[in-house]
Amino acid sequence: MNWFLAAKHAWRQYQLRDAQWRFLFDAPPPDEWVALDCETTGLNTRTDEIISIGAVRIKGNRILTSRRLELLIRPEKEVSAESIRVHRLRQQDVAGGMSAPEAMRRLLNFIGPRPLVGYYLKFDVAMINRAVRPMLGVGLPQPKIEVSKLYYDYKFRQLPAYRQHDQADIDLHFAAIMTDLGLPMRDAHDALNDAVMAALAFVRLRDLRGDVA
């Protein structure tokens, strides 16, 4: 960790509102990560809400599907027909879900200090941060690993020098990444399925890059 990241990490610890969450800043267990995904009522990180979260732990080159988390969250607003067409979660499906604060407590305890892995992770983290800041005083402090960036870097290094300026040759759609890596596609827009697929892509890319012993 360079001095800037170390200073940022220390400042976040200083801003932490409740000491019970100090473990989030601990050193992560060696070779462990958490892949996660959220389904939401829409794509506006300021006004939309999380309605489901899926997460799974990764250890080395193994995806620990027995160590997974599936949460349904009760939104404050009605679930729109447009969002139902995407994730197939109806109002009656989430009406019995837990409150957002309870879901965040469970999620934080599941993640601990482990780095986060995901596809389009920036969106999921923004949605989660909006929910956890009232509890923590800060956003998620864990390192974040974007699968599409790992894939882009891997494919870019394979391009001949004369084509490396042409970024359009690298398709970063999730289905394209999974197909190119020879990985199975699960039903998309299911939080746990998407988390497991991100985990599969992460493990495969680490293997291809030589990060797995």
Textual characterization of the structure:
- By secondary structure, the chain is an alpha/beta fold.
- The protein has one domain: Nucleotidyltransferase, domain 5, CATH 3.30.420.
- The chain contains 8 helices and 5 strands.
- A 5-stranded mixed beta sheet has the order 3-2-1-4-5, sandwiched between helices.
- The model has no long low-confidence stretch (mean pLDDT 88).
Q: Unreliable stretches, pLDDT < 50, 5 or more residues?
A: none
Overall mean pLDDT? 88
Please give the CATH architecture: 2-Layer Sandwich
Question: What share of the residues does DSSP label as strand, in percent?
Answer: 15-25%
Distance between the termini: 23 Å
CATH fold node name: Nucleotidyltransferase, domain 5
Number of contiguous helices = 8
**Domain unit count:** 1
Inertia-based shape: globular
Structural class: alpha/beta
- Report the radius of gyration as a whole number of Å: 18 Å
**What is the H-and-E element order?**
HEEEHHHEHEHHH
CATH class: Alpha Beta
Helix content: 40-55%
Number of E-state strands: 5
The CATH homology group name = Ribonuclease H-like superfamily/Ribonuclease H
Major sheet size, sense and barrel closure: 5 strands, mixed
Strand order of the largest sheet: 3-2-1-4-5
Question: Helices and strands in order, then pairings?
Answer:
Elements: H1 3-15, E1 32-40, E2 50-59, E3 62-72, H2 81-87, H3 91-94, H4 100-111, E4 116-118, H5 121-136, E5 144-146, H6 147-158, H7 174-180, H8 191-209
Parallel strand pairs: 1-4, 4-5
Antiparallel strand pairs: 1-2, 2-3
Helix pairs in contact: 4-5, 6-8
